[in-house]
């Protein structure tokens, strides 16, 4: 499951491509939380037509990444401590359930895919150039790793909701890099321990490690003294 699946369900129309591009800018913070999304400005920014842009932004509103305001257009959905806590709690419950089902029903091909996904994400640096700039290749590999963990789950809806929450979490993962404790965390080791439990078919341990993995990301943001950034009042106008 990728950003594309969250925004499009798999089809790749112009609106789909635009929705994916805008979503990446929202997740990275290039489009700040709370900022106004003016269709004409977006048309210039993305060199696209107004009609597919409106459809793209409307799709993102349906997925919770954009807020639609009556008679006032659209804004990037805000971020907050309460929102992060809610997303983390929901993700812990949904992905634990999906992972348990995957462990109970996944076959050998699924196990091999999990190992391959772990190898890929482990081979890439999570940050490049600047310690606070996330490596986009690692981000894609990380998303693929977590999607692959759940690929053995029989419920398409659990996997769909998990994908949406995973992308919502990505907005805060960028924020977690600003924490003074970010360098102390060994994410690669966390991934390895989860996979060990998965391959051992120890669902209880795997699910607990997964919940701890999500909680660790949330703590880096929630324990950081720096306020979660929003668009300025001027930008929100």
User: Can you list the strand order of the major beta sheet?
Assistant: 1-3-2
CATH topology group of the largest domain: Four Helix Bundle (Hemerythrin (Met), subunit A)
Order of helices and strands: HHEHHEEHHHHHHH
Strand content: under 5%
Envelope shape:
globular
How many helices? The count is: 11
Uncertain segments: 4-11, 232-237
| Distance between the first and last residues' Cα | 35 Å
Rounded mean pLDDT score: 87
Q: Quick one: CATH superfamily of the largest domain?
A: GntR ligand-binding domain-like
Give the tally of β-strands: 3
Largest sheet report: 3 strands, antiparallel
Level-2 CATH architecture of the largest domain: Up-down Bundle
Structural class: mainly alpha
Spatial extent as radius of gyration: 18 Å
Q: What is the CATH class name of the largest domain?
A: Mainly Alpha
Measured as a percent range, the helix fraction is 55-70%
Domain count: the total is: 2
């Amino acid at each position: 499951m990728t950003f594309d699946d969250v925004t499009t369900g798999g089809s790749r129309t112009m609106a789909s491509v635009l929705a994916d591009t805008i979503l990446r800018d929202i997740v990275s913070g290039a489009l700040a939380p709370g900022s106004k999304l003016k269709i004409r400005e977006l048309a210039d920014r993305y060199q696209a037509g107004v009609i597919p842009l409106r459809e793209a932004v409307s799709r993102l509103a349906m997925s919770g990444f954009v807020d639609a305001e009556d008679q006032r257009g659209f804004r990037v959905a805000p971020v907050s401590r309460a929102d992060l806590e809610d997303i983390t709690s929901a993700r812990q419950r949904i992905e634990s359930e999906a992972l348990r089902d995957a462990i109970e029903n996944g076959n050998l091909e699924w196990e091999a895919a999990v190992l391959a996904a772990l190898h890929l994400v482990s081979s890439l640096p999570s940050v490049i150039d600047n310690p606070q700039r996330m490596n986009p290749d690692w981000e894609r590999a990380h998303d693929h790793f977590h999607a692959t963990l759940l690929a053995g789950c029989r419920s398409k809806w659990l996997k769909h909701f998990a994908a949406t929450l995973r992308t919502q979490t990505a907005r805060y993962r960028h924020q977690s890099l600003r924490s003074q404790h970010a360098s102390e965390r060994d994410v690669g080791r966390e991934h390895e321990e989860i996979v060990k439990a998965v391959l051992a078919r120890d669902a209880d341990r795997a699910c607990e490690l997964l919940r701890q993995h999500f909680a660790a990301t949330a703590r880096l943001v929630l324990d950081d003294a720096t306020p979660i950034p929003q668009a300025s009042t001027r930008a929100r106008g």
